[in-house]
């Protein structure tokens, strides 16, 4: 469900570097280093990952060894150096490339601090996770970051070591101001079951924390701190010492859109003056921006419950609580509170708007397909990746599928028609490709892939959400995490689809104080989350934007709940499309009750391409299309890919009718009549016929030979047949039966095209345009309807969506009049 790698050109395009930055970057040694890594041929990526695996294995075999001491001054100097480097990279145009590994075994503590015994740095060993122990320490340097947040720490004996905390919420791409708020000088922490490792140079040791929940931020009044005797004096933190000063500091962060830093500053303020309403209200707002809705709700409710709260404070608290409920998809509760705001401030424009939005969301989650404004969503997705719509679960449920990894799948709960809506799901979390100068290369040891920033951010945001919305943790825990995952994924029927869907939005039972003290209550298993992302993440190709080249970091990466339980089939019984970050699944054929809902994880016509992609997730695909193509033999499949690549490399001027005819002929020759897929679904033939149709259309247009359009129409009909569409009326001229009205559709409305649905709609429009050019308005109108039906089967939305989606095509083909025919 993720894009493949591509060459440097598309990588740079996907990173979004400007020409000037690109030129500068090309002269930078780190760029060359990144290019060398990112454009490695597949075998080299595999080899690099194997080397990393070997290194982990040899460290495991070597076993624990003595700690490598480090001098306080040296550590302080290198921290200061890395901090300067970070500052420089954040304030200059320099590009930075960060390399990280995911998917290797790592520890996340599940034992509460109170049940752990203290350990000192001097008693720790390298290559060891100190299970059963905690390390009390405090930072004696300012923090910096590479992929992880780093700082120098000392224990009560004054012994020092470097600390690296990976996956801290909000720390990816954090500025120094945010880092200084998370880990200011003199921060006292307890590290649960810490791991000491050697760095990659093999010269120095450091403490590596993978799960941010293993870091416990200690309050000055904590018994552990009260009992501690430090050999060295604490470094002055420079933090404000009154609630009001913390509020001002938080407000400054808030203004600069550093919402995590703001929330931490407000939290510090609340330690001085616990019931401060303004601090609670401000923090609730910061949490809303961070999408930590349960935490926001908890703060707002504290203010609401206080009987002395009145006036603007009450209005703000009600409004923020309502926004939090809305974020948790509890639209009815949200609406009730927005209405309460209107009691205090009748006609307040914002709340009036929100009441309406709640109404619309409730309608969507109740009524499904007809309640969504598909055309509006399409337009909205052109400007914003985040769409505001409700989830909807249609006639589907989770079922036991023992032969599939994870043991589950999704089935229809009743008979379903082609094109019927099956589910609409908002993402659990989304990560975005690099837009700044900071680029990530992440080597995945579970799937032997290379990822970019989008995957690194997805993992980090998933961790943050599990921490901020603890009630959603079971959802993430239950996702399939690959064959090596421990513990094994839960067996069917738990958790059922409805529970998964509910957990995605609801936060019942949350303590909702997750970030209050920066001590996070929900333990996070980072390895499971990394692996769950590996096996369930979707690469978002927004239907409203031009398709992007598949590179290691070209598209946002998202995690969904119920859609993650749908198994793969290249010719699936359903198809998925992303409207912004919202995934919409529809049936591609008529389904009987109990029939499995499957969809293609990778949308490619070529068997070779699909097989390569899927082999990383599960052996080979057993869908009927792959079985058919395998019968043709690997050589022919490779030949089809070669022919397609060769034709695609032609310049437009060279894509002549005769070149396209040769392409069709050569492609036909790869199918053996009788033995192979001849006469059945042949997605590669759609490409060839599509190319010929296009070449013929260009020729007809250039020469003005109207008679040529007949062949254009026939060729496009053949293209449609190649993707499984039954063309009922292939006639090019002559009278149609009197019953054949303009609205009679000349194709069988029994299944959507296999794989290349967008091409199929364009080809049906090409047929329409051909009849229109031949002055056959009746056939043109009928093929126009066929194109709309093909689009409807995949996207729904009827004529309204068809109009916005293909407006430019109607204009280009000069067929806009067909709407009125
Ligand atoms: C996104 S999950 C799908 C749901 C999964 N079956 C579960 O129980 O959670 C993807 C994993 O399901 C399994 N799977 C999906 N489609 C499959 C197929 N066609 N053949 C074999 N395994 C498949 C693979 O193990 C794959 O990595």
Automatic annotation (TrEMBL):
<dbReference type="InterPro" id="IPR046341">
    <property type="entry name" value="SET_dom_sf"/>
</dbReference>
<dbReference type="InterPro" id="IPR011990">
    <property type="entry name" value="TPR-like_helical_dom_sf"/>
</dbReference>
<feature type="domain" description="SET">
    <location>
        <begin position="394"/>
        <end position="602"/>
    </location>
</feature>
<feature type="repeat" description="TPR">
    <location>
        <begin position="315"/>
        <end position="348"/>
    </location>
</feature>
<keyword id="KW-0802">TPR repeat</keyword>
<dbReference type="InterPro" id="IPR053209">
    <property type="entry name" value="Gramillin-biosynth_MTr"/>
</dbReference>
<dbReference type="InterPro" id="IPR001214">
    <property type="entry name" value="SET_dom"/>
</dbReference>
<dbReference type="InterPro" id="IPR019734">
    <property type="entry name" value="TPR_rpt"/>
</dbReference>
<dbReference type="Pfam" id="PF00856">
    <property type="entry name" value="SET"/>
</dbReference>
<protein>
    <recommendedName>
        <fullName>SET domain-containing protein</fullName>
    </recommendedName>
</protein>
């Amino acid at each position: 469900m993720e894009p493949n790698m591509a060459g440097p050109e598309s990588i740079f395009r996907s990173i979004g570097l400007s020409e000037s930055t690109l030129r500068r970057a090309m002269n930078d040694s780190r760029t060359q280093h990144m290019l060398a890594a990112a454009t490695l041929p597949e075998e080299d990526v595999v080899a690099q990952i194997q080397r990393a695996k070997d290194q982990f294995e040899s460290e495991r075999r070597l076993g624990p060894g003595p700690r490598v001491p480090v001098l306080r001054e040296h550590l302080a100097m290198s921290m200061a150096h890395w901090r300067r480097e970070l500052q420089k990279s954040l304030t200059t145009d320099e590009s930075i490339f960060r390399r990280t590994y995911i998917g290797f075994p790592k520890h996340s503590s599940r034992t509460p601090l109170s049940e752990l015994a203290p350990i000192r740095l001097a008693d720790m060993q390298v290559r060891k996770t100190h299970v059963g122990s905690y390390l009390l320490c405090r930072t004696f340097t300012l923090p910096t970051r590479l992929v992880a947040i780093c700082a120098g720490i000392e224990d009560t004996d004054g012994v020092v070591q470097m600390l690296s905390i990976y996956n801290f919420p909000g720390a990816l791409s954090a500025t120094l101001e945010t880092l200084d708020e998370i880990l200011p000088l003199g921060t006292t922490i307890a590290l649960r079951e810490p791991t000491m490792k050697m760095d990659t140079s093999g010269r120095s040791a450091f403490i590596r924390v993978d799960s941010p929940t293993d870091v416990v931020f200690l309050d000055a009044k904590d018994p552990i701190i009260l009992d501690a005797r430090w050999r060295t004096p604490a470094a002055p933190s420079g933090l404000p010492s009154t609630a009001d000063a913390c509020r001002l500091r938080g407000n400054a962060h808030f203004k600069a859109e550093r919402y995590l830093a703001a929330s931490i500053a407000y939290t510090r303020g609340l330690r001085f003056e616990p019931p401060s309403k303004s601090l609670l209200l401000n923090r609730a707002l910061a949490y809303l921006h961070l999408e930590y809705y349960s935490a926001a709700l908890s703060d707002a409710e504290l203010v609401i419950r206080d009987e002395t709260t009145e006036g603007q404070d009450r209005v703000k608290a009600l409004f923020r609580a309502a926004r939090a409920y809305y974020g948790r998809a509890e639209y009815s509760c949200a609406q009730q509170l927005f209405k309460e705001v209107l009691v205090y401030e009748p006609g307040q424009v914002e709340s009036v708007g929100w009441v309406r939005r709640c109404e619309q969301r409730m309608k969507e989650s109740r009524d499904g397909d007809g309640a969504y404004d598909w055309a509006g969503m399409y337009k909205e997705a052109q400007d914003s990746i985040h769409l505001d719509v409700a989830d909807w679960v249609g006639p589907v449920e989770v079922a036991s599928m023992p032969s599939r990894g994870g043991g589950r799948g999704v089935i229809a709960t009743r008979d379903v028609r082609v094109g019927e809506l099956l589910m609409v799901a908002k993402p659990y979390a989304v990560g975005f490709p690099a837009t700044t100068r900071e680029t990530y290369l992440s080597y995945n040891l579970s799937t032997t892939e290379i990822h970019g920033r989008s995957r690194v951010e997805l993992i980090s945001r998933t961790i943050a959400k599990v921490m901020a919305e603890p009630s959603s943790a079971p959802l993430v825990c239950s996702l399939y995490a690959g064959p090596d995952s421990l513990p094994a994924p839960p067996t069917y029927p738990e958790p059922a689809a409805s529970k998964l869907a509910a957990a995605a939005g609801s936060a019942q039972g949350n303590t909702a104080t997750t970030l209050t003290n920066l001590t996070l209550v929900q333990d996070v298993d980072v390895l499971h989350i990394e692996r769950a992302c590996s096996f369930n993440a979707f690469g978002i190709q927004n239907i409203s934007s031009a398709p992007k080249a598949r590179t290691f970091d070209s598209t946002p990466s998202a995690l969904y709940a119920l859609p993650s339980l749908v198994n793969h089939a290249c010719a699936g019984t359903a198809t998925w499309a992303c409207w912004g970050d919202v995934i919409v699944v529809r049936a591609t054929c008529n389904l009987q009750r109990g029939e499995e809902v499957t969809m293609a994880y990778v949308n490619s016509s070529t068997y070779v391409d699909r097989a390569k992609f899927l082999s990383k997730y599960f052996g080979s695909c057993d869908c009927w299309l792959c079985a058919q193509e395998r019968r043709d033999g690997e050589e022919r499949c490779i030949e089809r890919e070669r022919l397609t690549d060769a034709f695609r490399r032609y310049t437009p001027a060279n894509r002549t009718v005769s070149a396209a005819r040769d392409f069709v002929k050569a492609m036909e020759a790869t199918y053996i009549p009788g033995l192979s897929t001849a006469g059945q679904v042949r997605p590669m033939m759609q490409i060839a016929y599509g190319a010929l149709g296009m070449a013929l259309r260009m020729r007809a247009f250039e020469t003005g030979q109207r008679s040529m359009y007949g062949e254009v129409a026939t060729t496009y009909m053949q293209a449609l047949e190649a993707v499984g569409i039954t063309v009922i009326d292939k006639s090019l001229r002559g009278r149609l039966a009197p019953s054949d009205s303009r609205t009679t559709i000349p194709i069988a409305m029994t299944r959507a095209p296999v794989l290349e649905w967008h091409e199929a709609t364009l080809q049906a429009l090409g047929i329409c345009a051909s009849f229109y050019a031949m002055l056959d308005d009746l056939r043109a109108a009928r093929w126009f309807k066929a194109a709309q039906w093909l689009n409807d089967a995949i996207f729904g939305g009827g004529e309204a969506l068809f109009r916005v989606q293909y407006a430019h095509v109607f204009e280009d083909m000069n067929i806009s009049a067909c709407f009125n025919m």
